[in-house]
From TrEMBL:
Keywords for this protein: Repeat, TPR repeat
Name by which UniProt lists this protein: Tetratricopeptide repeat protein
PANTHER family referenced in this protein's UniProt entry, alphabetically: CELLULOSE SYNTHASE OPERON PROTEIN C, TPR REPEAT-CONTAINING PROTEIN MJ0263
Source organism (scientific name): Flagellimonas alvinocaridis
Record has Repeat as a keyword: yes
Renumbered ranges of TPR repeats: 363-396
Gene3D superfamilies: Tetratricopeptide repeat domain
InterPro entries registered for this protein in UniProt: TPR-like_helical_dom_sf (IPR011990), TPR_rpt (IPR019734), Ycf3/AcsC/BcsC/TPR_MFPF (IPR051685)
């Protein structure tokens, strides 16, 4: 074949973060860093292949898809590439970039150039499946999904199963790694997609997207009006369902109503429904939204996954949002919280540090960083950060309680040593007394931190309860009784 002797690179350009995300290129067999390729083409003024886009549109009409990417040519890029790009004018633009501007689908099939055709369809498959192509996701799963899309498209184009499998023949089994499956599994993915195309499936099977209803302009307009009325009356849950119905009766075209439904479901705490709507919206395309609107889609999808406790998916979408707008505190906060749920304290702390740089006057950020250091057993750093949070806001109860509790825990650890006969015999009387003095000093510091907090807010129940714990431990019965009486009074007042 005329293209057989050429070595084509197929790579995926992903979002970049110096902290966690790395741009990758997929050679169709593996992922590699592509920082050296980023500036070669620029992606500002490459030639857009409108003729090829029309051919792809015809194919997508056949399989019930809507093209969500542009096709461009760049001589500096070898081969064919699927790319997500969030720089310049708008976030998350999708591209398929090819080296030559003469690629033609019909001629590839006529010439049996399955190698090149497979790579081109695989690139489109990534976008059809809405892959974000960042290194916090499961590349293995995404590659298999893209291969399924290849088989499905070839089936709908009338290509036989035997020829469809030839798109994988050139991939050697030696390329198996943590991102790409063995050839047999990739062929199974192509066969699975090809069978979908033959068994009457009109569109590529998707994840849990919103189902459409028979198109009815009357029903669509009616539900739009009901949505607007409910929205004006502040009945947002009802408005979300009406907006969803309007989208379903529009044949999937009324994306504005779908966006309204997704947002209101989220606001009402219906995270699973919100997620379903937003994933459908991403599949249908968010080009009609302003830049901030596009950003909010990724943020809210990430937050939905967070509340559904799907931590890896939350990180995937929140990271994408963070790379679009690095200074968004809400995104940083949920990224830190998600890594905290995963008990990845190092990553959690890295995002909290970014929040502190952006919002240094907020004691919550400093407090949260203290928590991450405490989890990593870096007690002195945690103490320093709790003190800093108290300095920023003296009435910051969480920091006072955390600092006092840390002092008490340190004291308790030493008390266990003091009760050990071996410790006394090994250290001697002088060091034993010094350790005893350290225990008393730590407990005194804990009491002082809390009593200063009570001076600022005498009715702070959390501080009173922590003080009560200390007084019980130190045997200060008079102070213990005073705190107990105060807590009793506050309890009666709350009733």
């Amino acid at each position: 074949m005329q293209y057989a002797a050429r070595f084509f690179f197929f790579f995926v350009l992903v979002f970049f973060s110096s902290n966690a995300q790395i741009r990758k290129m997929c050679t169709y067999e593996s992922y590699l860093p592509v920082s050296e390729y980023i500036d070669q083409c620029g992606f500002q003024k490459p030639q857009r292949l409108l003729g090829l886009e029309k051919k792809v549109d015809s194919l997508f009409n056949l399989i019930g898809e809507q093209r969500n990417f542009q096709i461009k040519s760049c001589a500096q890029i070898r081969g064919i590439s699927a790319m997500n790009f969030d720089s310049f004018h708008s976030p998350l633009e999708r591209f398929v970039v090819i080296q030559e501007n003469t690629l033609d689908l019909d001629s590839l099939i006529a010439n049996h150039d399955w190698n090149i055709l497979g790579r081109f369809l695989h690139a489109m498959g990534h976008h059809m499946r809405q892959h974000l192509l960042i290194d916090s996701i499961d590349f293995f799963e995404e590659e298999v999904e893209a291969d399924e899309a290849v088989g499905f498209m070839l089936s709908k184009m009338g290509v036989s199963k035997e020829n469809s499998l030839k798109t994988i023949d050139f991939v050697p089994d030696s390329t198996v790694n943590e991102t790409h499956a063995p050839t047999i599994k990739r062929k199974n993915a192509v066969i699975r997609g090809w069978n979908w195309g033959q068994d009457g499936t009109s569109t590529l099977p998707k994840k849990d997207y919103v189902e459409l209803l028979p198109v009815s302009e009357t029903q669509e307009l009616d539900y739009m009006q009901q949505h607007n009325t409910a929205h004006k009356e502040g009945k947002y849950e009802l408005a979300s369902w009406h907006a969803l119905k309007a989208f379903q009766y529009s044949g999937g075209k009324n994306r504005k109503m779908l966006a309204e439904a997704a947002y209101h479901f989220h606001q009402n705490g219906q995270f699973a429904m919100s997620l379903k709507c937003y994933l459908t919206l991403l599949d249908r395309g968010i080009g009609f939204l302003a830049r901030n609107g596009k950003l909010n889609v990724f943020v809210i999808v990430g937050i939905n996954y967070y509340f559904l406790e799907e931590w890896d998916m939350a990180i995937q979408y929140l990271t994408a949002a963070h790379l679009m707008l690095p200074k968004d505190l809400q995104t940083l906060n949920y990224l830190a919280a998600t890594y905290q749920k995963k008990r990845d304290w190092e990553m959690c702390g890295s995002y909290v540090k970014k929040m502190i740089k952006l919002d240094s006057k907020n004691p919550d950020h400093t407090f949260n960083l203290g928590i991450t250091y405490e989890r990593q057993q870096e007690v002195h750093k945690a103490i320093s950060l709790y003190r800093r949070a108290i300095y920023i806001t003296p009435t910051h109860t969480k920091s006072r309680v955390a600092l006092a509790t840390l002092y008490v825990n340190e004291a308790n650890g030493l008390i266990l040593l003091l009760r050990s006969k071996g410790y006394y015999q090994g250290m001697g009387q002088k060091k034993y007394k010094k350790t005893r003095a350290t225990v008393n000093d730590l407990l005194a510091k804990a009491e002082q931190v809390l009593t200063k907090g009570l001076d600022l807010n005498p009715d702070d129940i959390r501080i009173l309860e922590t003080l009560l714990m200390i007084y019980k431990q130190t045997g200060k019965k008079e102070k213990q009784e005073q705190v107990e009486k105060r807590l009793e009074v506050l309890g009666q007042q709350s009733e």
